[in-house]
Design goal:
mainly alpha
């Protein structure tokens, strides 16, 4: 039997499906970051307190950086990939924390300075683009580290762009709900909704 849905139901369904996908992406990113930090903790006596505040943001950076490292330096071991991409992500997100310095020391010991420098150069380009984009939204952030805590948005920006083109995000509550389920309690629902709304409006104003 053929089931017909009206335009409003179609829009609601698309928002729901996209929200599920965004939530899944962020959940996966956070898991990658947590797994990476836990491995680093085991190998280099890392401080796991960083998980509570920065795991989602680190995930947003470590995923593209890890892809770059694996594609550029095929001779490295799994531990090498972890060390280089995590150190770069940590520095880009937390601005030279003590934990990042520990990883840099290990990079020097293992002779991975060249790989690290190339990786963080790519990361700085990504960070600059993200900061410029976020600052264009006129949000009330005060520090770069606060903005970079929202780097988890990087892999879902394309999804938000696609939704904005189809005018299917007049109500972003479903998106915010799914994101918060994946992010945990360390982010404000009000601020997440403001950011998502401004991103969508920014895209709509460009075409």
């Amino acid at each position: 039997m053929e089931i017909l849905i009206n335009e409003k139901q179609k829009k609601e369904l698309m928002i729901f499906e996209s929200s599920l996908k965004m939530g899944s992406i962020i959940k996966d990113m956070s898991k990658i970051a947590k797994d990476s930090i836990q491995t680093a903790n085991k190998n280099f006596k890392f401080d796991l307190k960083i998980l509570a505040t920065f795991s989602a943001g680190i995930g947003g950076m470590i995923v593209p950086l890890n892809e770059f490292v694996r594609g550029e330096f095929t001779q490295l071991t799994e531990d090498n990939y972890l060390l280089v991409s995590l150190a770069a992500a940590m520095i880009l997100i937390t601005e030279h924390s003590d934990n990042a310095k520990k990883l840099l020391s290990e990079i020097s010991k293992q002779g991975l300075k060249n790989e690290f420098e190339k990786t963080i150069e790519i990361g700085r380009e990504l960070k600059e683009s993200f900061l410029n984009f976020m600052e264009s939204l006129n949000l009330t952030f005060f520090k770069v580290t606060q903005i970079m805590g929202y780097a988890f948005l990087i892999p879902i920006i394309e999804l938000l762009y696609n939704l904005s083109k189809n005018d299917e995000t007049d109500n972003v509550n479903e998106i915010v709900y799914r994101l918060l389920l994946s992010l945990g309690t360390h982010y404000s629902a009000v601020l997440i909704k403001e950011i998502i709304t401004k991103i969508i409006n920014r895209f709509r104003n460009t075409y």
